[in-house]
UniProtKB/TrEMBL annotation:
Protein name: DMT transporter permease
Transmembrane spans: 12-39, 45-64, 76-99, 105-126, 133-153, 165-183, 195-213, 225-246, 258-277, 283-303
Pfam family, one: EamA
Main location as per UniProt: membrane
Statement: the UniProt record of this protein carries the keyword rRNA processing: no
Source species, domain of life: Bacteria
Family named by the database record: Belongs to the EamA transporter family.
Claim: Cell membrane is one of the keywords in the record: no
GO cellular component: membrane
Organism of origin: Xanthobacter flavus
Source lineage: Bacteria, Pseudomonadati, Pseudomonadota, Alphaproteobacteria, Hyphomicrobiales
Subcellular localization, as worded in the UniProt entry: Membrane
């Protein structure tokens, strides 16, 4: 659980962790689709840096009072905040956008589904926190559902998925992000807006040398309508909204209970492909969705049972 007491919010939605985490998966799934769509058009590290600069500037007017109030805490905890920014903001996003330039959609979705297992590994390594039997069963059930969707219900298709450099980069990015999710419990007692604004601003600074390297190598941000609409979305939905929701979800239920909701990423990604790319619904979509939802329910109920007084 979080290192600091969980404070109730004035907004009912902000105290509904499973709704928040479902919305996070949807927003990040859209980001994944957008990332594949603009691959080769916008330099990946530049995209990540501009994304966080823009998100910070949007959030700053709302977060300023919290930042001023929390400045002494920020100064005392700067090394931890840099670590959180490097893992959850800078590295993960830049590497994901880079990997999406090379990986197939189906491979990228499969790679994303490993996140809950990686979070479980980090929470065990760092805090000796073990998954309960119900949580482990939920993670495995959801993972099977993801595999059913990605393989179209065909074992031979699944066995012949071939990893490439993009898959490897995204796997490394997920290992890094899982570390962020695991150590998020140690976040300093900052307000939610000041915490997010701080790690986003630090992430922008950490990415700037690499974005400069991209620029010096001739990879320039194109100023066109595709770039405009891409930046408008990535600065708001998967950045401001999703990170606020994810941080709050982990604060309320812990990393291991929150992680199975990341299995919804490929589920939503498939649904988006059906809606926007004209793909048709098949039996394996329904079977996979049922398994993913069952796994999440199993892990969620197990987490609630563990937290309940006995």
């Amino acid at each position: 659980m979080s290192a600091t007491p969980v404070r109730p919010s004035r907004f009912a939605l902000y105290d509904a962790p499973y709704v928040l985490l479902t919305l996070v998966a949807l927003l990040w799934a859209i980001n994944l689709v957008v990332g594949r769509y603009i691959a080769g058009h916008i330099p990946p590290i530049t995209l990540a840096m501009v994304r966080w600069i823009g998100a910070t500037l949007i959030l700053l007017p709302f977060a300023w009072k919290q930042i001023v109030r929390d400045l002494p805490i920020i100064r005392r905890n700067l090394p931890l905040l840099v670590l959180l920014s490097a893992t959850g903001i800078a590295s993960y996003n830049a590497m994901s956008y880079y990997g999406l330039q090379y990986t197939q959609a189906v491979n990228g979705l499969l790679v994303q589904s490993t996140a809950p297992l990686l979070v479980a590994v980090w929470t065990f390594v760092l805090f000796r926190e073990k998954l309960s039997l119900g949580q482990a069963a939920g993670v495995i059930t959801s993972l099977v559902g993801v595999m059913v969707i990605i393989s179209h219900g065909d074992l031979d298709t699944f066995l012949h998925l071939k990893p490439n450099i993009g898959d490897v980069v995204i796997i490394v990015a997920l290992v890094i992000y899982a570390l962020y999710a695991a150590i998020l419990r140690k976040r300093p007692p900052l307000g939610p807006l000041s915490f997010l604004a701080t790690i986003m601003a630090l992430g922008s600074l950490l990415l700037s040398p690499f974005a400069l390297w991209e620029y010096l190598n001739g990879k320039v941000l194109p100023l066109d309508h595709v770039t405009f609409f891409t930046l408008a979305y990535v600065m708001t939905g998967p950045s401001l909204v999703a990170y606020l929701f994810f941080n709050r979800g982990v604060e309320l239920v812990g990393a291991n209970a929150a992680a199975p909701f990341l299995h919804l990423l490929p589920v939503f990604g498939t649904a988006l492909a059906i809606v926007f790319l004209g793909e048709t619904m098949a039996w394996y979509h329904l079977a996979g969705y049922a398994l993913v939802i069952s796994g999440i329910a199993l892990a969620t109920l197990s987490a609630r049972w563990r937290m309940a007084p006995h």
